[in-house]
Amino acid sequence: MQKPLPAKGTRDFGPIQIYKRNYILDIIKENFTKYGYFPLETPSFEKTSTLLGKYGDEGERLIFKILKSGNFLNGLNPDKLNFEDVSNLANNICDKALKYDLTVPFARYVSQNFNELIFPFKRSQIQNVWRADKPQKGRFREFLQCDADVIGSKSMMQEIEFIYLFDNVFNDLHLNGCIIKLNNRKLLLGLCEILDCQDKFSILVNQLDKLDKVESKKIKDNLKIKGFSSNQIDSIFDLIAKSYNINSNMDYFKNFFEKSIIGSQGLHELEFIFNYFSKQKLLISSLVFDMSLARGIDYYTGVIFEVVQKNKSYGSIAGGGRYDNLTEIFGVNDTSGIGISFGLDRIFLTLDELKLFPEFKSKMVKVLFTNFGTDFTEDIIKFTTAFRNAGIISDFCPDFIPLKKQLKYANQKEITFVILYGEEEKKSKIFTLKHMKSGDQEKLSFDQLISKLKNG
Fold first, then answer.
1. Is the pLDDT of residue 177 over 80?
2. Domains and CATH numbers, the chain
3. Mean pLDDT of 81-101
């Protein structure tokens, strides 16, 4: 009989994986709190009207939709149901969807509670999201996002703060070689304006967003198929190449974008950031300009971030950006926001590959009471409870099985100590403590046991 498996793109997590994930999460949470971002949670699913139209064509395709409750075909004219038009069919029979990210539900929350919030409003949010994506290394259909956003301020100080937040988290994780890539959606808009291809902006963003997964030649071919001229494509990739050395090429960029107001504004915003960090150094990360960075989600309007680990092939480990118009969709105007997100799964893979996780044995069961039969049951439960109340991670064998099997169990669980409590120990009230690694044994009173196990 074939064993049941989890759904494709989802995973189970065992104890060690949970400890490692919590290690990362604790560091992220600590930094969120240090920077004044306090927790918020939203439901796991939203109305489709809340989510649809916010992520672009690629994003819309990946949203998990939920059938209407009850008879989802009720009220629909069968003659008008086109089973070949899947998207339109889904819109007719689905009214809810699992959340694709945490930002759009956050914008909905801000709009709903606008009159009660104090702006700028800063929040952190750590919850699962779902995407009907093709599963691969570091990419899953259900995954945990760790977001921080501030809404209600247009100040570029927020961009600076988020770069520091990235750097602090990766420094605390001892994760060297992190590259914080920057671009600005306004530059991409300005580029399309100058090259006279404003109508193809979404196409350009969509294709550039694939550059970390697809060879540049393929992207160039795709752009040509979608109507970009050879000169336009050459100009785009020439700017991308020059962006990697912004210090030497800043004058070139200024001259190029002087024909576009929005492009010049985007370049000025990036120049502000790079000028600041030319005087103030980051702890562990490096900052680079990358004109190919696009962040293929429609709501981004300004500076965008992406963090990659040097010499690692499984994509970004964090990202984010400025969004100026997201709350307008929900009826709240002129409320600019900016946020970042840490990719827990890819950070996990990176730390695991580089062997940067600390030892977790201290969190495992430290001592195990053996079981010599029902005559000792009451005492074993009482002693184990006393150990736990003293802060010692303790357990007992619930079944009376041969001692050899109980010791084998302790070894398999990597338990440091075993307490032998039989007839002799019960009479003398002196316990036998066995150190599993060395095999050494010693006789101790209960108070001596507590002292040794708390301090040893």
1. yes
2. 15-353 (3.30.930.10), 364-455 (3.40.50.800)
3. 78
